[in-house]
Amino acid sequence: MQKYKCDICDHIYDPAEGDPDGGIAPGTAFEDIPDDWVCPMCGVGKDSFSPLEE
Predict the structure, then answer these.
(1) Do 29 and 1 meet the contact criterion of CB atoms below 8 Å apart?
(2) Residue 53's pLDDT band (boundaries 50, 70, 90)?
(3) What are phi and psi of 20, to 5 degrees?
(4) Contact 4, 42 (CB under 8 A)
(5) CA-based angle 37:21:38, to the nearest 5?
(6) Which pLDDT value is given to residue 12?
């Protein structure tokens, strides 16, 4: 699954890990995260994330 990087703080959202503290279970694709989810590091919304080039 595609990883995404926060354009503001460079936090990486890894679908394999999810965001358990934010209520996102491991294995959740970025596209399936609720629209009101925010970056756990800096608090910006999903629209501030870009696909990570691997």
Answers:
(1) yes
(2) confident
(3) -55, -40
(4) no
(5) 20
(6) 98
